[in-house]
Amino acid sequence: MRGLQTIDSFLQDFSGLLCAHNACPRESEELPVPRLKAGAKDCKDPKGPKQSRKRLHLFLTLIFSFVPYLAHADHPKPWQMYYQDPVTPVMDHLYDFHTLLLCIEGTIVLIVGALLIYVIIRFRASKNAAPSKVAHNTLLEVIWTAIPVLILVFIAFPSFKLLYMMDVTPKADLTIKAIGNQWYWTYEYPDHNIRFDSNIVPEDQLKSGQFRLLEVDNRVIVPTHTNIRIITTSSDVLHSWAVPAFGVKRDSVPGRLNETWFHVKKEGVYYGQCSELCGVKHGFMPIVVEAVTKAQFEQWLVSKKNPAQTPSGG
Ligand SMILES: [Cu+2]
Questions:
Q1: How far is ligand 1, taken at its centre, from the CA of residue 300, in Å?
Q2: 284 CA distance to ligand 1 centroid (A)?
Q3: Which CATH number applies to 174-305?
Q4: In principle, which of 65, 275, 283, 310 could form an S-S bond with 303, CB 3.0–4.6 Å?
Q5: Ligand 1 center to residue 221 CA distance, Å?
Q6: 153-199 residue pLDDT tens
Q7: Considering the entire predicted model, what is its pTM?
Q8: Domain segments of the chain: what residues?
């Protein structure tokens, strides 16, 4: 279950933070992604990290079993209320961080709501005709200031860690340039001398199984299990290159280059849209990324360089 994985992942991170400045690495980490602290020492928890983690895991699972973990997809669905299925390490961490915040906020809402109901019932006018005149309580005021501060400090650790991970592009094996235009995208593969435009497929030309307002004539083809750098700019106004399943959203600004990265773990077709209001056809310049195996990607490169030999590419 995704929720349990999420809580477990959070606990791994949390125990890492508690143990000697993030000295305990995540067991499931599989990528050379940037971390705040490299190198590891043994965890000093006398009860053993696994045992304490198990207890905390069980406790949180019992408490937060009400959290709705709805179905995921790699494209928007009617009445969808939750994230698309994460397929990159960044989106995995974003999802986990979101769930952590949801748990913290849910707990605060439950505690404050319960206190409010208690006060409303316990101190109602009919049962409490002579109300207390107490106006200050120093200890109480220190507590209700210190607890939110501690919560914010606790949240800041995974937050900064994630920001750093998103910001620093690891060594990239492929660079793609995405140029926003009113109202289509131009893609360049500078290392392979490939350039093409990607336009929306009009509604009356959609084939069976294609998505309205999301389909394009030329997809971005990328290999899986590869660090891919996206650099983006614009030829006219502000656009934004965004693919939700990747956890990627980067503004395309005329006259400057912005950079981000992703590493797709699963083959598939992933849909995104321009996410900056760019004019009257802002909603008509979708983004489609097709992740294929490295061998298929090599074939696609050949087909783009020699279109006469293999005309079906892209
Ligand atoms: Cu746009």
A1: 27
A2: 8
A3: 2.60.40.420
A4: 310
A5: 20
A6: 999 999 999 999 999 999 999 999 999 999 999 999 999 999 999 99
A7: 0.71
A8: 2-126+138-167, 174-305
